[in-house]
Each structure stands twice: as C-alpha cells, then as structure tokens.
Write a structure and sequence with these properties.
Blueprint: E1 6-12, H1 19-35, E2 40-42, H2 56-62, H3 69-81, E3 84-94, E4 106-115, E5 121-126, H4 134-137, E6 147-150, E7 153-159, H5 167-174, E8 179-183, H6 190-203, E9 206-210, H7 219-229, E10 243-245, E11 251-254, E12 261-267, E13 313-318, H8 325-340, E14 345-347, H9 365-382, E15 389-396, E16 399-406, E17 409-415, E18 436-438, E19 443-448, H10 455-463, E20 468-472, H11 478-492, E21 495-500, E22 503-508, E23 531-534, E24 539-544, E25 553-555, E26 558-559, H12 570-573
Parallel strand pairs: 1-2, 2-3, 7-8, 8-9, 13-14, 14-15, 19-20, 20-21
Antiparallel strand pairs: 1-12, 3-4, 4-5, 6-7, 9-10, 10-11, 13-24, 15-16, 16-17, 18-19, 21-22, 22-23, 25-26
Helix pairs in contact: 1-3, 6-11, 8-9, 10-11
Length: 584
Amino acid sequence: MPPVSVRVAAAQFAVGIDRSANLAAVLRAVGAAAARKARLVVLPEFCNHLSWYEDREHALREACVLGDTFLTEVAAAAARHRLYVKLHVTLAAPATPPVPGRADGMRITATSLLFAPDGTLVGRADKQTLMGSENDHLDPADAEGPVVETGLGPVGLYSCMEGVINEVCRSLSLRGARLLLNSLNSFALDEASLHIPVRAAENKVWVVAANKVGPLIPEARLAAVAEGLGIPPEALHGAGESQIVAPDGTVAAKAPRTGEALAVADIDPLGALDKHRPDGTDVFAARRPDLYGPIARSPRPVPAFGGRRAGSVTAAVLRPAGTGRAAVEDAARLAADAAARGARLLVLPELFLFPSGRVPAHLTGTEADALAAGALRTLADALSGTDALLACTVPAGDVHLGVLTGAGGPVLRVPQLHPSARHASWATGRAGPPEVHDAAWGRIALVAGDDSVHPETFRLAALAGADTVAVCFTGLEPWESALGLPERSAENRLNLVAAGHGQGAVHALPSDFGLWQNHGGGFTGRISHPRTTTATGPLTLAEIHPAQALRRMLSRSTDLVDGRPWRLSGALVAPSGAPAPRPA
C-alpha cells in the first residue's frame, strides 16, 4: 500500500550537445529534489542530447546504451539519494527482428527509464508517437509501455507528443496507473495550459510533468533557424512550467516559465482510485469499449464528403430561460434570431427543457416524451425558411436522445452512448456506433450529455470525418469546460460548439496550426489550442472553420488523428468488467 502522502518533484533545466554537461544537469536536479525530501523526481525529455541530429549516424553516436556511464551515474544517484528517478534519453540497442529500412541493425528509441531508490532499472517505455524530425532518426515503440508497480503505487511513463493525444495516457490509466510521469522537450505554451493538466483530469490520476528550458536546437544554429521560421529565437526555447497536477485537473505546483527549477508537491496517490463524477458516475466503468474499435484499427479513408467544407461558418450557443414550455418558447425565439443573423449551426444545452439538466422525477415517461416531441416541432418551425441546423437533447422513451434538426425536421438522431448516474432512473437504452450528418458546409457530429467527458467519443467523430461537433452537455466539474472540451478540439482538429446550463463556448480551429507553420499573425507559442469564444448571455455567435479540420499534420510525419498509436491501443477496446455507475 503506497503512503497516504508522498513528496514528488518535476525538474526543468537546459540540455545541450555536451554529454558531460547534460549529465551534470541531471545529477544536479536529482540532488536538488533529494534536498527537498522528494521520493520521486521526473526529468525532461532527451536528457542526453538535444533532439537535433545531422543524420541517423549522429543520433546513434549520441544515444545511450544500457550500462553506459551516463545511465550508470544516474542509477547511482538514485541509490545515493534513495529516490525514484524518471529519466528520458535516446537509447540504442540491436534490433530484433531487424527494422525495415535500417541498415545499421540497430533500434534507436526515445525512451523513458525509471530507476528505483536502490538504483535498479524497474521500468522502461519507448515513445509510441514521434514528433516531426524525430521520425527521421528514431524508431517508434513496438510495445506499449508498462504500468510499473512501485512503493508509491502503480506508475505509468510517457513523453511529450504522447500527451498531446489521449490514447497513451488513457491506456496507462485503464491498466491501473495512478501516477503518470511525463518528460517533455517542448516550446509550446499549450502544453502547460492544456495538454498536461487534461490528462490528469480526464483519467482522474496524478501527473508529474517536466519540461525543458533553454534552446531546443544547437545554439550555433538558433538565430538562423528562427529567422527562417520568422519567429524570435526565444520562441525555440523550452517552455518550462513543469508541473504537478491533481486528479481533478488542478495544478498543485508549477515551476516558472524560464530558468532551471523544481516544482515540488505532496500528493496522495490513493486519490487516483476514485473515478466518480459528482453525480456518482464511474467514468471508467461507463466507457463503451465495444464502440471504440476504430480507434485501435489501422487508419483508413473516411467516407467522401459530398459538399465543400466552408472556410468560415457562423455558429451559435443558445441558453434559454425557463422550464418546460417556457424554455421551448425562449429557445425558439433565440433560434429564430440566430438563424436570421446568419448562424447555420445552433446548439442548446443538454435537456434544455429542464434547467438542472435532469428530467424531473414527477414527470412520467409519456409526459416527458410528449413535451419533447412538441419542442422539436416548435424548434423546426422557428428555423422555417433557413438552412440552419439546431442540436439539442430530449427524453425519448428509455433513451437520452441527441437530435439535429432543420426546418424540415430531424436529420440526425444520436442516443447518449455512455451510461450516467444522473439519468439512470429512465435512460437505460444504448446504441451505437455514433453517426454524422453532411450539411452543405461540413460534416457534423453530435455529442449528447455525458458522452462529452469521454475522449473516445470525439476521436470516433474525427475518424468518421467530422469537422464540427455540436455538444449538448451539463458540466459537473470545472475541468470539463476549462480543459476537456478545448482539448477535444485540439487533439482531433474539430470545431466544437458546446452549450451547457450556465456555460458553453465555441472552440474554433485556428489557421496557424502546427509546429513549423507560418505564424503570420505573430507567434503565440501554441501549436494546437483552439480559438475559444466563451458563451455569455442567452445568445453567443462565433465563427467556426470547417475546412481547417482537413489539416491534421502537427509536424512533418506527425498526424494528430492517423498518427495515434493504434497498434498499441488494445487497452482502450478491452472489456472493462468494471461495476455499473452508482446512482447519486
């Protein structure tokens, strides 16, 4: 049993091309963490050498091998200070079997290594999803990383790009990891603001993440590379902000943006055992692995889109007042107003008829169904003479049903796919897989209710070729709106139009997307974060960009969607066998 409280640290420092200086920085960080009485320290990605090589031979010369001086010194430091050390290096080893196209007979991997307090190597995880030029010289993992049993509880190891998408952290958490250790080599500011904390919140685990500071390419080349990209040299420095994040997504400790530093916090690893939302839904037990097959299959072409995706479309978040028929009348008024102002996709909160997002207990199934049917007719009438589409959810027998309707009536019906305790008394019907609707300007998916907290829902939409997702939700925890929905947009290249009770936002895809794109509007330090318009008042209008969804290359050879580690995602589609959600 792990201790109730344990001190952990994330170390940030600069790494260059001098192996001895890099080792000194590693040992300095381990010593500093020990001085703060940490029992675990996480170090940045590529501690042995900058991730910048002239060719594969250069990468092979600079790689570590098991038992070399670099790794032996780090193991000795772990034993000397009696703490766990999570190190990340490039690692070379004979390829068995041979790697196609690699004449040198070697594998070079970007590898996380976990040394125990006695100096033994207890965990190794090769990077599954490589970023950009890493693909030129390094080999991706051929096995999923292990969950390592430690004195601090089960631990999972990952690095950088593996946290920009959800599959690796999801797999580790499903296999029992309570503490995820992330090593980064990134200049992107949205790592710290979005990608790192969301992995803790969506899986309800602890995350300890260590990033670099200082130049991420050789200093002799920094000015020329920056000039070629049209960005300031400091934009190519590691973004720092190493951090420790709690299972609810709150940051327990964070290092500064620049400078060598430690983030240190006392954590309770057992806090990651509870996977329940405030309404009593166990988010792991509620998963639908039977629907997630496409995530773990090889990339395949999506069905052709019959129209032409628009560069820009106006979307609207509607938040009507009142309950029952009063809510319907107000929603119809807002819908007519939004359509008249050019909005082509309108989204209402989950079960907009009821401000709490729940069907009142006193309403019988028949009464609720009749109210819902009348509401859909009224909303369709409000769209008369327009090509606007409106998304909402309503009770329909034993199903919580998402409906996309136009002036002529519903064009898409999507039941809530995942069970939730809030609706357990009446919504017992299940269906799938989810479907999409082709409008003249883009392909739309609809997410109903608590499907919004499952990253797999949005990955399926992206794999179906959606460019826009209407989300009718009820947020129960702060992270769901602040981190969850922006991340679903970012990691899938999807426009999201999300309406909730008292909340909501439009997350539009930016044009300045990717690692080495032309940032003509000024470099922001973000690589995939959407442009967010927060809903205010009863009607919020904002532009979305369907055509931008076709751009999924985050960097050369790195596709956000098809680059997912589908071969190693078996844990995502394995039956959970977990208990059903407990009612609130």
